[in-house]
Amino acid sequence: MHVPTELRQAEVSSCFAPKRLVKEWHNAHAGGVSAIRFIPDSGHLLLSSGMDGQVKIFDTHSSLALLRTYTGHSKAVRDINFAPDGTSFLSSSYDTYTKLWDVETGQCRQRFSAKGRVPYVAKFYPEDPNIFLVGQGDKKIVQWDIRANEIVQEYDQHLGAINSLTFFDSNRRFISTSDDKTMRVWEFGIPVVIKLVADPSMHSVPAVALHPNQKWFVGQSMDNRIVVYSAGERIKPHKRKEFSGHLTAGFACQPSFSPDGKFLTSGDSEGQVWCWDWQTTRVMTKWKAHEKVTIATAWHPRESSRVATCSWDGTIKYWD
């Protein structure tokens, strides 16, 4: 858990697109990798979850080795998310449990289940490490309190399974996306939709990423585009700005921004990684990374050109 000294002081210099493969972790997860996350702030550890029901953590700074495997889920793990301080994380699995793990000791601290509902996504509330939200397959978003071990709030407006939850506006509000092809904006703690983003031409948006300057967010739309929305007082689509060229229809490929906000990357269904310039929306570079769909890309929060990618072929690759 100790943060390397050079990553503490490191200011993010201007980023550039990765050019070479640094490390490949073969068969990281049998049956495919579902998500990858860098530890917040320092980024010296990489967490991954897979279809084998396991969560693994890798060193991305010096040894590039597998450090620990967290075993405890009986079915595939769909999503993982670190606590804001990086000492614990949540894993949500198709076995209906969301589990809270201690990163350092590897123990499962607590497990949460809402009457057999499948948790699709679990996110800590960034202001309070004892509160987290779970987006479920039964169209509800529930708010858990870790201390009381109970659901303290329900956000129930969507008409389909919840795909993603993203906090913005200094964590006062969050946006949820769902299979019902809408986005809904909520004020944290108040179960009333402030804004409904819906349009007959809209497709489902299963994966969302917030721009580092907090003014925009992008969503992976199911019609092979990445759409852009403003994240200010009014949530509105940026009509003239979209990122296209890749084929993702049917896959929730998680997009990712470089730490300075200059580049946007996404995987596609053919195993490629695409890198766009944020200002001009032009494709800067693309390369073949995996045999099957590249389901997630993640930029290192401190280093200028390090990107991790993972795929349903079971591998995780680390690029520089």
From TrEMBL:
Listed GO CC annotations: catalytic step 2 spliceosome
Pfam families: WD40 (PF00400)
Placement of WD repeats on the sequence: 26-68, 70-111, 155-187, 256-286, 287-320
Subcellular location: Nucleus
Keyword list, A-Z: mRNA processing, mRNA splicing, Nucleus, Repeat, Spliceosome, WD repeat
One Gene Ontology term from the biological process aspect of the record: mRNA splicing, via spliceosome
SUPFAM superfamilies: WD40 repeat-like
Entry protein name: Pre-mRNA-processing factor 17
Natural source organism: Coemansia pectinata
